[in-house]
Each structure stands twice: as C-alpha cells, then as structure tokens.
Amino acid sequence: MAIDPNTSVGRRGFLKGAAAGAAGAAALTVPGVAPIDAEAQAQSAQQARPVAITPEQAARNLAAETAPLPDEVDVQTVDNPGSDFMVDVLKQLDFEYIAANPASSFRGLHESFINYGGNKAPEWLTCCHEQASVNIANGYYAVAGKPMAVLTFAPSGLHHAMMGIFGAFSGHTPSYILVANIADGKERRPQFDWGAHSVVDPADMVRDMVKWDDTPGSLQHFAESAVRAYKMAMTEPRGPVVLVVDASLQENPVPDRSKLHIPKLTLTTPPAGDAGAVAEVARLLVAAENPLIIAGDVARNEEGMRLLVELAETLQAPVQGGGRGMPNQHPLSGGGNVRTADVILALNEDGLFGRLNRYRDQQVRSSTPLIKPDTKVLSISSYDLYMKGNYQNVERFQEVTMSIAADPQATLPGLIEACKKLITADRRRVMDERGKRLATASAEALERARLECTYGWDSSPITLQRLALEVYDVIRDKDWASVGGGGGRLWNVDKFYRTMGSVNGGGVGGSMSIAIGAALAHRKQGRLCVRFQPDGDMLYVNSALWTATHHRIPMLFVMQNNRAYHQEVMHLQRMANRRQRGMALAHAGLPGSSITDPNIDFAMMARSMGAYAEGPISNPKDLRPALLRAVERVQKGEVALLDTLTQPR
Amino acid sequence: MKIFLVIVMALFVSGLAAQGQPSSAPTGNAEKGKTLFVERACWQCHGLSAQGGGIAGPRLAGRVPAWPAFSRYVRRPTEEMIPYTPKSLPDNELADIYAWLRSIPPPPAISSIPQLNRK
Question: Most CB within 10 Å of its CB: which of A16, A328, A390, B47?
C-alpha cells in the first residue's frame, strides 16, 4: 500500500488505512471471505479516519522513512537461512509429522518446513491450540512407537502446551517439543517481541516435567542437541524433551554449510535386569503356589505382548494390571488375587501401593495392606531409573522384597529362560493344574461380564455397558483400534495396537487430541479407530476436531455425554453426605459440575468443523443404526461423531 | 495412570447377598423408592436401573442383600461407598429405596440379545 505523506503512517496507521481501503474497495473480493455490507463499511471508514498532521510533519516523516540505509543493514533477502538447516536435521530424525499452532517466533522455521522441506517428512499438522499439538503427538507415539515433533513458542504457546507436556511426563511419552524464542534483545521487534515472544529461559517453565532440554546457541549446537534430545526422549524410561530454537538462528543465513555436521542417531538399548537378580526372581516365581503378575505398561510393541504372554504361560500365572501387554481375553488375564498371592511380580507398575493396599476415602482416610505379611513383592521397573521431585506422579511408597531397575520388556527373555530352566516335572504339574483353575475362572468372569450387560439394557440414558457392546458389535469384524476408552472384557483385545496404554497424566481435556494423534498413526494401516469421548473432556480443546477433519484423519467419536463433570459431582456428593446436608445437590444440577442449561449440541459442534455427526441419542434402540451410518462414513475416510447420552457410570 | 475411583464392594454384593425374603425389613413404597433412588443420588454410582458400573457402585438389581446387612452398609459402609446417615436419608426413605430395589424385574435373557451371542 502506498504511503500517504499527509497522514501518520506508523504500523497502526497502516492497519487502519488497510481497513479504510477495504471499505473503499467494495469491488475487490478475497476468496473465501464474504463482502462487508455497506453500513459496516461506512462505520469502518469513519472509525479508521487517520489523524491529520501538518505538511511539515508529513515531510519529516516521509524523509525519515524513505532515507537510504547503510548497505550492511539494508539486506532484504537471504538464500540459505538457518531454518533450512534445522529442517535437514529434523528430516534426518525421521519425523513423519510436526504439530503446531502458527506463531511469528518460528516464522522462519515454518517457511522452511513448507517451501524448503516440501511439507513432507515432517508434514505440518495445523493445530488450533498448543495443548492439542502436544497431545496429538502423545497419541501418535502410543501407536507409532516414535515421537512426533511439536513446534511452539515462548511464552504463551508453551504455557498452552504445558498440560500436554505434563501428560507426556506422567505417561512416559517421548514427545519432542521445539520452543521458538527471541533471545537477543536487539533482534526483537518493538511492541511485538518484548514480553510477548521473549523469555530468558523458556525451558525453565517445563524443566520439572521434561527429561532433558537445551537452548542451542549455534546451528551446530542445534544439530547435536536435536539428536541428543531424540536419543534422550527414547531412552527408557521415555519422556518428553524440549529444545529452544532461537528466532535469529532460524532467520540468519548459514555462514558455511560445509562446516555443519548432523550427527548420526543411535538409540540407546533398553537396560535388562541384572542376571543374578533375575535368576532369583525366577526361583521365587517357580516355587510360588499362587504367583501373580501385575503389569503396567510393559510392552512397547507386539513382541512385548508376546513375551508377557510367554512368561504367564510358562508359569501359568495370572496377570492383572491396567497396562498394555496382556490380551484381555487370555485365560490367564485378569485372574488371581493379591490377597492370596504368595509372590507378586510387578512390571513397570507405578500404582503398586494402590493395588496392594485397601484405601478408604472417608472422613478419616486410611489404608491397610491387602497382601499377606509374608508375600514376596518383586518389582522390575524402568521408572526407578529416573524420577523428578516437583510433580508427584508417584503413589505412597510401597515396600518390596526385591527391586530391579530395568526395562521389563528387555528383561523378559532372560526371565522366561531362567524360569524354564527351573521348572521340574513336579512344578509343571502344579502349574498346569493352576492354569486349569485360572482358565475356568476366566471363562466364568467372561460369562459374568455378559450377564452384567443385560441389566439396564433398555435404560435411557444409555448404560455404558450397552454403549460399549453396541459399538463393539459393529466393529468387531473389522480391523479396529480403540484410541481412547475401552469396552471392557467383552472387547477382544488380541493385538498390541488395539488399545493405547497410558499416554497422559489423567487430566481432563487432553484425551480427545490424544485420540486424534493415535488415529493418525493408525491411518496408514487403514484401521477403524473408535474413541469414547466424554463431554467434559471435549469442551476443553474441541478445536482439535477440526485438525482431524482438515487432515482427513478418519475416526469415530462415540460420546459418553452425561452432561456433567461427573467425577466432581460424586466428590461433592461425598462431601455433602459426610456433612449431612444438601443431599439432593447432585440430582438438582450441581452448581459448578453440571453441564446443562443449556445442553450442548455436540453434534452441531462437530458438524461445524466438517465432521459427520448425529445426536443427541438417548434411546438405546437408536444406537445401532446410527453406528452403522457413522462407521460407513469413517470407512470412507471421514470423521464421525455420535452424541450419545449416557449414564454417568 | 491411576483409576481415581476403584470402589470395591465385593463383601457387600457377594458375602452379604441374600435374595430371600428379608427378616425385618420395614414396609416401603417401591414407587417412592424409585424416585428417591434418583433424588438421593444413589443412581449416580449404581445406575438408573441399579445395574452397577465399571468403576463406581456395584450392581444391586437382582442381588439385594437382606435388610439388616443392607441398612447397616448404607449407614456405615466398610469400603468406599458414600455413607448415608439417617439425617441424610431417613429410615422410611431407605425402606422405600429397598422396596424398589427388590421390585426390579429381571433383565432380558442373554439369549435374547443378539449382540451378546455373536461368535
């Protein structure tokens, strides 16, 4: 736009002038932008009228702004920006995607990804909130088994990202986070970069919940730290890392590309347990009458699942635990009892105290051991190798008999071998008998689960049991994957990729984005992804749904819409009962926890972002036809959402 | 990571379960009991049909304990359940709820639900 010497022409004036210009150029149209109506144009022009200044002032302004600058500062183009090299580094790390909400602090890197990198490997994922960016990366890792890069900026973007980073920290997820910052004060644009885009030490905000961070001062430093960060993130126990990327480093030219070297990435082998300690664990397990395996997130892949099954079958020992690793309908899955166990083997179980103790949340909180005094508790965990103090993602301290700081999956082959060597014919007979009892109990448990589904079958709102069963009934013959929420025992989780494991810290608001990241990782295999979506969670960062539709990530959302933050409803009810007052609170619509008046139209929300959606559905008889329609859409590559009204628990 | 509410009431629903005629149950109004089950928030954990849930209250439909055990547990739960004192839930209201729980008809048979019979 031409500068008018008769007006004040700072940036603010430029923007106002642009608005006025738009008002006077009604014939001009921009694709995708509706024309402004005449009245609005007139108002806009009135408001945008520039302040008149004297001719002398205008002349001085013009002279000041058009005077030639010295050659050394009048540089307007660059052929080899540092951000191109940064893209080379990140390509070598084999990132498939980079998730980001755009920001000026990384405009250099953004441009390099698109034009220099060709927007491939990594491909840019457009996110509308940094929490969504990180959680999409968290979910992607849970399925792909490798990190997704995330790009954000300091301070605000990193502030938004923090809950996702905390989730990665708690879920041992190696999300790889690049934080743009403008370190050099003389490079900061007045009015824009001071404060808004500049922090002395950005990583300090999240240092308590990342495994490693660095702030490279040169491109070579960036290359080395980028590789180191990846290696650190993927070393067991895995966790998020942060790399601060200076804006000047992105935008300034590379002095001499031939002097820069991108180090080769060599991942660290996960540590197996000490052979002597593993032999002792094997001896105790083989000699046990009632062994029990409690498995957290043991398996990293299908091989890990196979190894856990092999250990259980070798010992004919039941496996409990909420982690990913044991097929849930295996005859040894879910059985056993901590009360009767004489040897308990805990594998990467970070909630061991809660599993081995009875806890009561009454006015006086109390816990008492569930296990027998002489029960031997053996722990193999990589989590003992790395811990931080500020965020207390540990439970009360659980006493154990033996503790091996090692990666369970890496330790399982040695443990299985050691067990096999110790099993005599007598012990084999005992184990086989135990296995038969456990198989019978497992079959009975499965039958009980079927029976439980029948209660409240026709209730409206829909029971969670019926919802899960109806969904499973339409996906069971397809190559399905749950990307959040599960169906319980009746869903046959027979493969590693069917479920997600722990990828967040349990906070509300992240799981929708996590599901989208997971579905993205499943897309190339063409799996049918289903996510049970709580209403409260969806209200946090629902813009992630647009990212799913925009990037054609097919998946089915089935809502568990109870129109409340129901866990909090129950907490409030507990408080009211304890204090013997306000008993009808929960029923009446609890201020602060109910999400009613008005009820939210989630289907409309989803449609507004390009998804296929139906609902609200409250009659269970309407479920199946709606599910069939939605699944058909998903199989065509669309995002579908069914807003189903469910009972709270 | 951690399941926040793992509420185990196995003693309540198995050891004490007795579907036979209660020995000293007060007379209750099942219709009122159905309403009270909702208004007093019992359903928030146990479900509208007392069907129970995955991580909260267990199923009560079809396995209501005898009155002494039932009322004792509601007043002073030994596990995780929220306690209901007489001030919170008078005896007559508890009796109404009890009457409704015992009046709940059996669910449809497994064999009548196709979704439960696919191989």
Answer: B47
